[in-house]
Fold:
Amino acid sequence: MPNNPLLTAHTLPPFDEIRAQHVVPALDYLLEESRQRIEALALQAATTPPDWENFAAPLEDINDQLSNAWSPISHLNGTMNSPELREAYEACIGKLSDFSTWVGQHEGLFNAWQALKEGPGWATLDDAQKRAVENTLRDFRLAGVDLPAEKKARYGEIKSRLSTLTNQYSNNVLDATQAWHKDIHNAEDLAGVPESALATLKSLAQAKGVDGYRITLDFPSFYPVLSYADDRALREEVYTAFVTRASDQGPNAGKFDNAAIMEEILALRSELATLMGFATYADYSLATKMADSPQQVLDFLTDLAQRAVPQAREEFAELQDFAAQELGLENLQPWDVGYASEKLREARHAISQEQLRPYFPAPRVVDGLFSVVERLYGVRFEEKEHVASYHPDVRYFQITENDTPIAGFYLDLYAREGKRGGAWMADCRVRRQTSAGLQLPVAFLTCNFTPPVGDKPALLTHDEVTTLFHEFGHGLHHMLTRQTIADISGINGVAWDAVELPSQFMENYCWEREGLDLLAAHIDTGEPLPGELLERLQAAKNFQSAMGMVRQLEFSLFDLRLHHLGSAPDASHIQALLDDVRHQVAVMPAVPFNRFQNSFGHIFAGGYAAGYYSYKWAEVLSADAWSAFEEAGIFDPTTGQRFRQHILEQGGARDAAELFEAFRGREPSVEPLLRHSGIRAA
Ligand SMILES: [Zn+2]
Structure:
């Protein structure tokens, strides 16, 4: 084995030794070695009946060795990017994807798994092992491994054509987004736009060597213009450019049109579903999700719509009245909605994120987060010095229970150069049984908060505090697992539409007095969040919540119905379907030139095809789980232990629906979500 820190076994990554030049050689070595070992295991299984010890366990070792080497590389690429590292990383991702395709279509491996299921080995497996075998066989089948040769070839053609088309779709959206801009020379023409946004527009102009301000269709640029610019004609112009991207309408009509690409994507998805023995692509997509059938999802969305639409219409009527009376905007148009809503929000709930910052010094918030988790689950947090780190800002913590370590995590809170934006949880080590003993779970928790200046601690906004709790919820799902098989341990093997349950659940502690008292203390005076501020914060939470909900329902219903048609639609049929969904749930009539579908990347270029509903689905689960704590007390240790035992510890060991019922004692109810969103009972 070459001398390379990524190739030696470590409990935690040797961050002090890993360099960019180690990446490619380590990955090449591991992929080659993995291929050889997998071939050998498949061969052996053809003659010796496979069981857990002689087949599944060594295969898991191979995968784990690869992920333990890759997780720090991927994490460094996201948090400590440099030209050398980026080059090394990019050289590897193609090789990794080839490897996973090779594994996914490896017939010898598939036959071995099947022999384990059908042979003498099966009776010796425990429930968790059986579950892992069944998931693996399911994934092989959904990747077409057992199709007859001719269909398998067609499967490959469809997949490859789809990856080209979805990539073209997003390239068209990107090109259309970049093809439009508008330069403004006088600041007066941007009246209403806040200083910070003006600075962004100015720097965009400067970067292009232009005087004044440049509006582009990127979010940080167009969003403040639509939300704050007093000039109605300007808002209309920007709105029109935005909603006609990559279509046959608007300022670049026909130039980047995604219509034909959408038609072909939908036709191929439909063919793929048929090939795999499913009625529609929606049925195929749901095969690995918590929801049972497209009809169940449609009923779920329709039920929510029936409850939310009447209130959304009232909210919209209120907005129309306000706009007419206070802003002189008659005949509210789509390009007025964001603008008028901001004005209404200011009038109703004068509260800003900046006002809350002094109450949330980062060290206090982190301590408070730990206190919340300690009270709920009886575990302890302990910072470990002398753990090899990749940046001075990063801290490492151990979680212990009854003085025994059970998990660990790296906490990387602040934005810096070379760090990807946003917040996320990623796994560094997954909990599993190895021949050498138990491997404990380790997580990476990454945020991008404004760093501290001088010796003053960073002050967080309430949004940032909520984000930290959300990601820590994912982290607890990973770290408090009791599973010992990698494929169902932590968040592995958890259905796509259920994985946000633990994360959204944790956010609730940031909205309640009892939770906030553990994490809010004024930076200068140490006083808790004043009651009057808390009330305004809570009241503002549900501003226009029914309008927000029907918008999400519009996207979800459109996506699901589109992928649940008997035959593949053409562009005019796609439009007609969207119009029909809007007729059912939208409060603001769409303008005829709106081509939202041509830039709906989630479903045409991302992983959300026939899955957009997952956002709302998981929210129902998290709100209903929270309602159990509302009933018993939000720090009730018995309820906490039950949530831990039935949800957090189980990972993918059982179906998400079964786990939820085991915790809640009944099927999920939508009532708590409606109540928490301030939507009245019909
Ligand atoms: Zn999340």
User: Anything to note?
Assistant: The chain has a mean pLDDT of 94. The pocket of zinc ion is lined by residues 470, 474, 500, 503 (CB under 6 Å). The radius of gyration is 26 Å. The beta strands are 181-184, 213-216, 380-383, 395-401, 404-414, 424-429, 432-434, 437-439, 442-449.
